[in-house]
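Protocol step 4 of 5: obtain the predicted structure for the target chain.
Materials: sequence only (see below). No template structures provided, no constraints applied. The aim of this step is simply to have a reference model before the mutagenesis design in step 5. Sequence pasted as it appears in the construct record:
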Amino acid sequence: MCSGSSIHTRTELFAAGMTRRAIESALQAGRLVRLRRGIYADADACEPVMSAALLGGPPACVSAARHHGLWTMAAPEPLHVGLRPRGHRRGTGSVPHWDHDVADTFGVPAVAQTLRQILRCRGVEDFVVALESALHQRKIGSAELSWLAAHTNDTGREAIAFARSDAESGLETLVRWRLRGWGVEVRTQHGVVSVGRVDLLLGERLIVEVDGADNHASPDHRHRDLVRDAHAAAWGFVTLRFDYAMVVHDWPTVELAIRAHLDRGLHRA
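Step 4 output (structure tokens):
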């Protein structure tokens, strides 16, 4: 999450009591940055916020989610920009959101509004991943959840009812969401004897670990993962381990592997 997000119009600066001379002085001192005619940024405003302002509004959707520090599945580009219903997008290459949720011309939407934009733009999987990230980080409360449920569709409400606050990664959320309706109990961050907490435990014996590249790519991490899997096997558990690329880009292979183990009853005690 980047700090500093204040974008000001010249009119707003005048209304706050600044004169033209004071604005020029702030520019020369580096306290303000002129983005374009009549639009200024605080010196500590982060790059995505300034880039969005140059395009006509604040970061929106997954770009706003990253600004809030939420986990998203979308690649960083292109930038999503929020615009008022009659707003004007400047330039090309961004994803515009003409949205009534954009109440302030340059104000980054609140977490609940951001999640609503994600559902509309990216679909329910991106939505539930960002939602559980917000719940885990305590960045959305019961009042905001109630607003979100009242201002979304049945699919969104299903995801809200499904969501929980103990998911520690977006991959974990995504796998659990895709396993719903399979008729198997799925526990998250569950303690396993001699192993510790595992990402997902299906039934009583099938462990599913989802490895983000940043956390498991090094030889040391790989060795620790193998030791964990061996300890799990010694206690009668079966471990399936998938990485980000498999979960996000090759789900059919992941699904076939899990279903094969379930069909053989390897999740039962």
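Step 4 remarks: The longest strand covers residues 186-192. Strands lie at 7-9, 32-36, 39-42, 80-83, 95-98, 186-192, 196-202, 206-211, 238-243.
Proceed to step 5.
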